[in-house]
Sequence to fold (664 residues):
Amino acid sequence: MNQDDTGPHISFGRLAVSDLPAVAPFARFREAVHAPDGPEVLFRHAPDHEVVQQPDELARGRTVFGAETPAGRDARAGAAAVHRFRRLSSIVLNDAILAPRSMAVASPARGLLDTALDTPAVRQSRLSAVDPDFSEAGPDTWRLLRPVPGIGQTILPVGGASASNYGGFLFEGLCGALLHHETLGPGLALAGPPLATWQRDILALLGLGDAHLALRRPTRFRKIVTTDLTAWTASEPNPLARTVFDRIRAVLPAAAGPRRVMLRRGAGNRRQMRERERIEAIAGQFGFDIVDPAMLPAAAQAQLFAGATAVIGETGAGLANLGFCDPETRVLEIQPDCLPDGRARAACHLLGLHWHVFFGVADGEAGAAPGGGFGYAVDPNAFAATLDRVFGAP
Amino acid sequence: MTGAATPFGLPLAHAPEGMLTSSEFRDATIFAQPFGLIDGNGRVVIGPVAATPPLGASAARVVALEAGAAVPLGRFLGPALACGLIGRRVSGGLKLAGPALTPAQRGALDMLGLDGAHLPFDHPFTFAGVIATLGPARDAGASRLMRIGIDALRFTVEPYPHAERIALVRPGPFAELLASRGFARLDPFTMRIDDTPLGLPDLVAILAAARVVAIDQAAEAPLLGFCDPGGLVIAFGAAVPPARGWAALGMLRCRPATSDEAGLDTALAG
Fold:
């Protein structure tokens, strides 16, 4: 049911997730979702967790190869390895707006949910740079620039601000939409921007293919049900993120494929490894097949990683596929030394994979935007020695 | 066995290869007590069961759900429920069928919105088609494919710190020793913690908040899947292998120990 457009220039302050009143048990949250005049509330599934634990393979001099550059906080000599697992809360807002470009959720009555602001792109710049449907009207005040159509429906946003990124889509927010769809009962649609083919494939594998409503502009709904996992959680996943991978694995047949896989980042990527062909040839000598996962359908990517026992990959979205690997898979991440990304390390810990890191030497600082363009070098001799130590002969 | 039309085509050998296969068995009979399945050719698919004549028949196709009072709660919420959910998924949402549910088992289906999707019976019943998901992963103790029901149930609770130390052990002198060390005894069979009755959401919430769990029952090890990361599992006897597996899946530390005072104190001090 379409309602009249809401007039332009709706303004929002900031709404912190914790500003909403908490309810328990989950049955009360479910009632709030389904009652037309139900309260706007949050349900706390899990708090933040910190696990201080030195993973088997994380030790300086053994884990850190390449240029022997310090590997961020965890690889400093003597530093305790801390793994952070992000809290998880569900939220229901009434008469709320979903802006598909940024996946921002806003309530004209309560404000803009701050999960949309908790991303590197917004922190380094501003929301309007990420989502031109918004403008900044003042400190912690935002304004929608166009009239907002209304639909009398309750929806579950699929993913957060990073949903256009393969890793962001799989790890941030999707598990919340999936589990809401399963546990909150019928009648709830998924919503977000028009899906890319790979996103559509993933939803189909999860049994959600028919439930998605594609939005091209900010749209107002009767209710929006979402989670705080739609924020940028790259290096601090919530353990329930793995259920997306488990469920996809559970419906895919086993497929014959290489046991040792080295990922190739697509040609259009802004990070360029020098002498890539030489490095790939060295990996080939250790029995690794070179694969560009972006060239494969989503199911084939999942099957490829499900069958692998050893994976080499550069820091980036392709390593999100580690979620499909079996526990005990050995992983070598090639990380440019200017990148702070910890997603692969966190994912490996979450999934019981053996993570190693090889640092390449970047030509300069990473660009101002996350994943900004630069080149980096991998020393071939050090790389070969690392493969021998980590994987041994094929 | 047949390859009847389903969204995914059966039989479906799930990855990892050989560990789990979903198949459809034609004119198959599900037995309630003990749970079992015999196909239309008289072959025992899940057993052992005594091949008594069915007392009912249906033209429906269903997904077999291992359940009933003889199935430990951990086994039900882990492999039995996961295989039921996988069977529903690969069959396009057929109903679950199996023995009448215990209150806790019924609670699990309620929490997942599946209360209307279960056909219960107490005697052998023949169906035109029965989807069953079988293989070593179902019985191996711990597998990522066996935690999908557990993760969905964990999503529906907020951790409740009833006691930092929880004992999933049989009653007896060792349980009393654990009580003297501050463990609250959680009994998934009677659904009580010490003397307090529990609903399934309470049990999940208490385990999610526990920081130390002692366990001596292998079949209840999947319940460790509800624990939040960073906790400690102390495993005894036959529970050690599956507890080690579920602890690894849940980012928990696991210490095997002998079920006596010295073993317990060493594990707690370690």
About this structure: DSSP finds eleven helices and 23 strands in chain A. Residues 380-390 of chain A form the longest helix (11 residues). The mean pLDDT of chain A is 86.
